[in-house]
Amino acid sequence: xxxxxxxxxxxxxxxxxxxxxxxxxxxxxxxxxxxxxxxxxxxxxxxxxxxxxxxxxxxxxxxxxxxxxxxxxxxxxxxxxxxxxxxxxxxxxxxxxxxxxxxxxxxxxxxxxxxxxxxxxxxxxxxxxxxxxxxxxxxxxxxxxxxxxxxxxxxxxxxxxxxxxxxxxxxxxxxxxxxxxxxxxxxxxxxxxxxxxxxxxxxxxxxxxxxxxxxxxxxxxxxxxxxxxxxxxxxxxxxxxxxxxxxxxxxxxxxxxxxxxxxxxxxxxxxxxxxxxxxxxxxxxxxxxxxxxxxxxxxxxxxxxxxxxxxxxxxxxxxxxxxxxxxxxxxxxxxxxxxxxxxxxxxxxxxxx
Length: 353
Hints:
Blueprint: H1 7-14, E1 22-27, H2 28-32, H3 36-41, E2 52-56, H4 60-72, E3 78-83, H5 88-91, H6 103-117, E4 122-127, H7 137-146, E5 151-155, H8 169-178, E6 184-187, H9 193-203, E7 207-209, H10 220-228, H11 239-257, H12 260-275, H13 282-289, H14 294-302
Parallel strand pairs: 1-2, 2-3, 3-4, 4-5, 5-6, 6-7
Helix pairs in contact: 1-11, 4-6, 6-7, 7-8, 9-10, 11-12, 11-14, 13-14
């Protein structure tokens, strides 16, 4: 969700219903070195509570320092450790979804984060493993609990699956059985509130984590709150209401970044997600994604058919969906699962992923 869950989008989501809304993935090396871009990325809106920051790291010492910095300087109220990212720029350095394979290194990172965070809760997000021959989630879940993690979230895919295929919800159930002492959260293919209810019923998990399901759908969190309360009501905005949310989202980005140009460029990726399922021609979509100013974007949004109702095909996959042929890993990464050495050049100096 890098480049997506910045403060403006989190505000839109939080307005719809309760939940824990986590920052973009932040690199621990960049944080402890006070990289200017990273420090801008960890800003929270004044009304955000609980403030949740997602950290990525490969070196236990650096991760511990970053967690201590977050706690000592009051930068957030909760730390989420990302061991689920499948991006090649992360896994080829041994991070993200590649890291739990190194059992001792994984433990050391979680231990360092928990120690550094002090009273702040630390949670762990991960995938099933690298591929079906290198599944790690059960051992990693137990290790995370033993090292003091407050909860563990599982995306029911391996790294090689990336975002393709169908998420394996049965793995969430198996993890819940293996880790009874802390909450287990399920992730993967939650495109609607009813998907979340079904996952919890089928797996026994304690809650859900939503990623791609909220792309262009900030109102999903209101639906989730209603569904978990047994309320059948669901948000079904017409195209005019969606267009209004789009315009507000872009304007909030401009205010947040202090740059209209940066905002409209960043917003371009959101256009297709917001409009999924609606009958909007290709020329109109291209016009929206090439708008050079907020005024031009608003003018094009005003030209949409505002009375068009919520379409039947609005739910379902959005964002990346293809599988990968292989996972990019450091040389010799699979040779020894107990090797605790930190790979050379492991820590990225920029955030994202």
